[in-house]
Every structure is written in structure tokens, then in C-alpha cells.
Design goal:
It is built from 15 helices and 12 strands. It is an alpha/beta fold and 384 residues long.
């Protein structure tokens, strides 16, 4: 079996993402990349990719730079995969990484590699007739608690109303983030208090403070201390993603678990988060960190260091399915993130959207990712 074609499709939602202070539920991603890898046997693998899709497409479609073996360093990612055996995921990951090393290593090139890697694992599962979690090494659980992932509302009353909506749907945990949070501590604390009051003592509250708000480590510590009485399960993304030393100061000073990693990439990047950053919870996004090939290494690394892994999973049901497989593979798993946006790229990209089942998401059992893309939706929102 050989790879016959590699394509990155740019999709555009009719709505625009809204993260303003007055926003409620965002529409989901405005633009999304969809990777499709096809083999000469007819098997195909898919993955979404939440990045600047048009730039990622350029990384995939760029021409081959050199005909001399061993000189691949500026090559387009598709040219590095065509004609290769898709089952050799580890070798192909490094072939893409090495072949794009002069313009890649991190950022959009690594994100495109991540999506291509997921698509290759999807093909592997379909070739072997097994779900990806089995190929990773095993399934420790069949369902995983889900937390609703949504925006901070602008008033305590709106926060309470949002909580009531999600708990009525069956969620036992809610994460509020971004929106207008982080601009005024005197306004922020009542929002968190309102969420906790509405959730009650037996449901989990998670807080994403938004790293785009500039904070020093001491300001971050003060923020965490101000909301600690409301018992957040974790506080996420307090500082710039690469402020490892700042994260260490914060994590060492507070008793609430500190989470980050959705922007991080490669296993050595997550090693920095563990050893230098000292964070409690790693949040790899499989479409950014390096795909399943790197995600499996992150899980092993976290287990050795006694850290939790709760993947970032916000874009579509394709990424949610991938995150369910990675989470099922972990010996200990607390949550999976569930994007509550109702936009078409979030909810309609697969034929049978993933739904909540008494507060849990069921791990897909079909081969590969275990979900089937909706070609009609792809055609409807396709840009290139």
C-alpha cells in the first residue's frame, strides 16, 4: 500500500468567531484546514487542523526542493509522503519533520505535520480494522467524562444561566475561558463565584484565563489566589506559552493545579513544560503537538513524571474523536474537552456527530478514528 495523494482543503464557516466581552457561545472556527490522505488501495485518512489553514496548505503543496537524497529540508510535505507506505507512521513523521526543517520545526509546519500524522494513523486503523487506541497500545476505558468548553459571559447572571444550560444537557463539568475575563479582577471574581454557586459543590469548574492577557508571574499568582475559594479543578493558560520559568513560579506558589500546553509542540517541548515549567496538567492539542506519534510519547512522559494529560480539543468532532482515542489509551484520564459551539465546522463535519451520554463521551470503536467525514458539508464550505 502506497500514498497516492495528499490534500489540505480550506474550509470557511459562514459565521465569524466572536470572543468579545459580550459574546456568549462562539460559532466555532471561521477557517479550518482538513487534511485528506489517499492510498492506492482506496483507503483514506482525515484530520482537521485548527491553524491558519491557507498557510498550512502552502506547507503541504510546496514543491520538492532537491532531487538529491538526504538534502530534503525545504520540501513540501505532500512531496515527502507520496509513494510512501502509510503504515510507517514513526518514520514518516520524522521524514516530514526533517524534510521541512529549514522552514518548520514549530508553528504552522509542525501543525500541518500533526494533521497528516493523524490522517496516517486513521489509515492504519482502517488497514488493520482496529480503532486507533488499540494501535496506540490499549484501551483503559470505554467512556470519558466531558467538560463543556465555552466562553466567560459578561455578568454573573449570564454565568448562572450558562451553567444551567450545560447542566441541563448533562455536563458535570464546565470550563469558562476568554471572553471578557482578565481585564478587571473586581469583575472577574464575581463571574467565577456565580459559576461555582450555579454548579454547586459536586460539579467541576475549570477556568481558562486567556494567555493573551499580559501578566507577570506575581499577577498570575494573585489571580489564582483570588479564585481559589471557588475550588477550580484547574486554572489554564495564565502566561505566555513559552514562559516556562514563569509557569514554574506560579505552579510552585499556588495549590490549584495549573494547566497549559495547547500551543506547545514536540515531545521535547512538553519535556520543557514538565521539567522547567513544573505544570500539573499537560494539554496537548493533537493537531498542534505532532499528532498521535508525539501524543503517545507525551502520555508516556507524563506518566513517568506523574502529571495529568487532558488534551485540548476545540475545533471539530474529528479532533474530539482523536482526543478520545488518546485519552482512552492513558492509564489515568480525568476529562475530555467538548467544544459547545454549534457552528457547522464544529458540529457537522462528521456524519454522526459526537454527543454527550450522561455526562460522558463514548470512545469510538470503529476502525481508525471511528468517525466518517461528511463529504456534503466539506463541499459546501470548501474554499480551495
Amino acid at each position: 500500500m502506497k500514498i497516492s495523494s495528499v490534500e489540505l482543503i480550506v474550509l470557511k464557516s459562514p459565521g465569524l468567531y466572536n470572543n468579545s466581552a459580550t459574546a456568549a457561545e462562539p460559532e466555532g472556527p471561521t477557517y479550518m484546514g482538513l487534511v485528506k490522505v489517499t492510498t492506492d488501495t482506496g483507503l483514506t485518512g482525515y484530520s482537521d487542523i485548527e491553524t491558519c489553514a491557507s498557510v498550512a496548505k502552502a506547507c503541504v503543496d510546496a514543491p520538492k526542493w532537491s532531487l538529491e537524497p538526504g538534502m530534503e529540508c525545504f520540501d513540501g510535505l505532500a512531496s515527502l509522503l507520496i509513494g510512501e507506505n502509510p503504515l510507517e507512521v514513526e518514520r514518516l513523521w520524522y521524514r516530514m519533520y526533517r524534510g521541512s526543517i529549514y522552514y518548520g520545526r514549530r508553528g504552522v509546519a509542525l501543525q500541518a505535520i500533526s494533521a497528516l500524522d493523524i490522517a496516517l494513523w486513521d489509515i492504519c486503523g482502517k488497514a488493520y480494522g482496529e480503532p486507533i487506541h488499540i494501535l496506540l497500545g490499549g484501551k483503559w476505558r470505554s467512556r470519558i467524562p466531558a467538560y463543556a468548553s465555552t466562553l466567560f459571559r459578561s455578568t454573573p447572571a449570564a454565568m448562572a444561566e450558562a451553567v444551567a444550560t450545560y447542566t441541563a444537557q448533562g455536563f458535570t463539568a464546565v470550563k469558562f475561558g476568554w471572553g471578557g475575563f482578565g481585564q478587571n479582577e473586581r469583575r472577574d471574581v464575581p463571574l467565577v463565584e456565580a459559576a461555582r454557586t450555579a454548579l454547586g459543590p459536586d460539579r467541576h469548574l475549570l477556568v481558562d484565563t486567556g494567555w493573551f492577557v499580559e501578566r507577570t508571574p506575581k499577577e498570575a499568582i494573585r489571580l489564582v489566589d483570588s479564585i481559589t475559594p471557588y475550588n477550580p479543578y484547574f486554572v489554564e493558560e495564565l502566561l505566555h506559552p513559552e514562559d516556562y520559568d514563569g509557569y514554574h513560579k506560579v505552579a510552585s506558589a499556588v495549590r490549584v493545579p495549573i494547566a497549559c500546553g495547547e500551543q506547545e509542540a514536540t515531545d521535547w517541548g512538553f519535556q520543557q513544560l514538565i521539567e522547567r515549567g513544573g505544570v500539573d496538567i499537560l494539554q496537548p492539542d493533537l493537531t498542534r503537538c505532532g499528532g498521535f506519534t508525539v501524543g503517545r510519547k507525551i502520555v508516556h512522559m507524563a506518566e513517568r513524571a506523574n502529571r495529568l494529560v487532558i488534551p485540548h480539543s476545540w475545533s471539530s468532532d474529528l479532533l474530539t474523536a482523536a482526543s478520545l482515542h488518546l485519552t482512552a489509551f492513558q492509564r489515568r484520564a480525568e476529562f475530555v474537552e467538548f467544544n459547545t459551539s454549534q457552528g457547522p465546522l464544529s458540529r457537522q463535519l462528521v456524519k454522526n456527530p459526537i454527543t454527550l451520554d450522561e455526562g460522558y463521551l463514548n470512545v469510538p470503536t470503529g476502525p481508525g478514528l471511528g468517525v466518517e467525514v461528511n463529504e456534503e458539508v466539506i463541499a459546501k464550505y470548501r474554499q480551495t
